[in-house]
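For the sake of transparency, this paper describes our internal protein records without simplification. The record that follows is passed on verbatim for readers who wish to inspect the format:
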Amino acid sequence: MKVFIVDMERCNGCYGCQIACKDEHVGNAWLPYALPQPNTGQFWMRVKEKDHGQVPKVTVEYTPWPCMHCDKPACLEAVPEAGYKREDGLVILDPEKIKGRKEIVRACPYQAIFWNDELDVAQKCTGCAHLVDEGKLPHCVDLCATGGLRFGEEEEFAEEIARAETMLPEKGCRPRVYYLNLPRLFLAGEVWDPQANEIIEGATVSLSFPGGESLRTVTDDFGDFWFRKLAAGVYSLKIEAAGYEPVEKSAISLKESLNLGDFPLQKRKAL
């Protein structure tokens, strides 16, 4: 059975996979798997963007998002006659049988099915089944410059699948697109000396939450600190630096990535 592996640490947001999909499918009919993809309005492989944090501490998350080729596809449960799941795991919507069945678009929890008004059919990623039949890679995988997108037999990726995640597992569709190194959330800030009007490098920053372990980092040569790959929750922060009074901040509610802003430290008074 085939699987897709998406390594988020390797994806740099080049949009090569999205462009490759357009290159392969716009204006090309690959029957019996797909009619031509329209030039606009559909992205069978799309790169989703999400901004994390607030200026000036902002990162952008890029997530390649094809059809998930589920083992229990909601689309085929809604309209069983519309297509089939191949022996290699790829889910195909039959271009003839799907005509006029627009309701299948709403059935996909991943919003990976699109409606073509001109052809009166639902369309989606086929996993480039026409290329796979020839022993080739899906075009999006073949053109991925960083190796962030891979495709092959489930057994080849067993070790990676064991530590990977899938999208929307609560939907029960059992997708066959596996994600590694999802970025999660971050907390960041800056530490400085208001009297000297300079940043403080090497300050110790501790982050903790009730019932969990404490994380620790130090400020860099810009006075910045970052805690990455955090789960949502309520955290407490403590900042310490030699010669300065410590600063604490509690009840930090983390629902989205957060730039806490700057923390001015006051010089410790001499005894």
